[in-house]
Design a protein that fits this description.
This protein is mainly beta. Helix content is 0%, strand content 46%. The strands form nine sheets. Strands 1, 2, 5, 7, 10 and 12 form a six-stranded antiparallel beta sheet that branches. It has a five-stranded antiparallel beta sheet with strand order 9-8-11-6-13, with no helix packed on it. Strands 14-15-18-19 form a four-stranded antiparallel beta sheet, with no helix packed on it.
Amino acid sequence: MKTLHLETLDLTPVRMGWDIPPHINRTVKGTPLSIAGQRYERGIWMNAPCSIPLRLDGQARRLRCGFGHEDLVQSANYEAPRLRFQVELDGEIQFDSDWMASGDPARYLDLDLSEASSLILRIVPENAQVGNAQGNWIHPELDYAGAVPFLELAAPEEAPALPPPDGYSSFLPGQRWFDTDGVPIQAHGAGLLEVDGTYYMYGEHKGGTTSFWPKSRVDIIGVGVYSSQDLMNWKNEGIVLPATPQDPESPLHPSNVLERPKVQYNARTGNYVMWVKSQDAHYSWGHAMVAQSDSPTGPFEIVSSERPWKDRSFGDFALYQENGTGYLIIATGKVETTFVYRLSPDFLRIEEELSAAYPGEKREAPALLKQENLYYLITSGKSGWAPNPTRYATATSLEGPWTDQGLLFVGDEDENSFRSQPTFVLQAGEELIYMGDRWDQRDLGDSRYIWLPITLKEQTLSASWQDSWTLRQHSDLSDPSESSDPNSPAS
């Protein structure tokens, strides 16, 4: 009889609630595994919901392990959901812990596997809530004879896509998207700007290796920009705000994080102004990095990097302008409110707070558009990297008040925005386009782009899934009244 310590398995293919691999012998923060204050030398840290499926083929004899719920979040406005620990043999639940709260003492299990063919170790959160629900399997061991049990996972969802030989003639949400050189596009958390009939897409280049501690991230490569006339076929124009590996004090040092770049043109100064969410590797800064350039293709130079208003943490944001005035919409943590601000005439700093949407609610990933005399503010909820329902609110003025209008997506049975999170909403001629990211936390550089058409009817927005779709008009994507005006409103 031999013993297999489950933490010695390669668990990187296993998906968890945060869509990152389970951690071995440590938490996601790098601290030792612990339950109710008791530390443990080895085990498997998991973020719920999560399942580890093993193929046994009748070779296993016993499962021995401890288990318990821990939670690393210390917050007055966060209550950790309870967890259940389950063991499934050949499709039948053989053990269920019932609900355990964070801080409950560890429990132990010794289960006869009775020569089962398959085993699943599962952690389930209460009410299917992902949040930060975290549990540990402590010292999990399998006694077996014969072949070594192995991890059994489903086949990949899709074969690798290839770029069309003659370019794209439609949008293909969720598939790999290639530039005109046949290279996968690296423009995550993107924003768009139209200048004289050419669209420029600015986004995070996440082509490096994804690391999982202290949080899932990729070393900064920089902000990339792509250009297009039809929104489907994009030319790589290079890195316009590159990393500065030679300067460890710079916010652009590779060890830090940059997210969600957005750009607007300022007609007063003749500069293109970029705002970027800037963090250290622990996500403790909450800075806004502001940069500018006299060209849409850069290079951009940093003007400032700081918390831009009353020491409030700078979270996900949208950049917007109307009639030459710039606005910033920021989802701010701790106070958990989405604020609308008016920018200074040069767009480089905040000048005035105008309104607050979703006060006290955990929202992020804002995008803004205006149709006729109504503003539409689209936001996601907060659930780490896991997707959640997208909602929108309306107001007749950027000074509010904002009224929630419900869910954006129809036919979204899993209520996860078709596994996406908003980053931008674009008006191209008569077309309204939802732009979202399908984050792959295990490989952030392979996160996919979810672009879908939005329907506006009687002041109600809606969007549904399309495997493939084309623009209603191809000859002129720009609004004729705005086509040569780089000040045209964009979210």
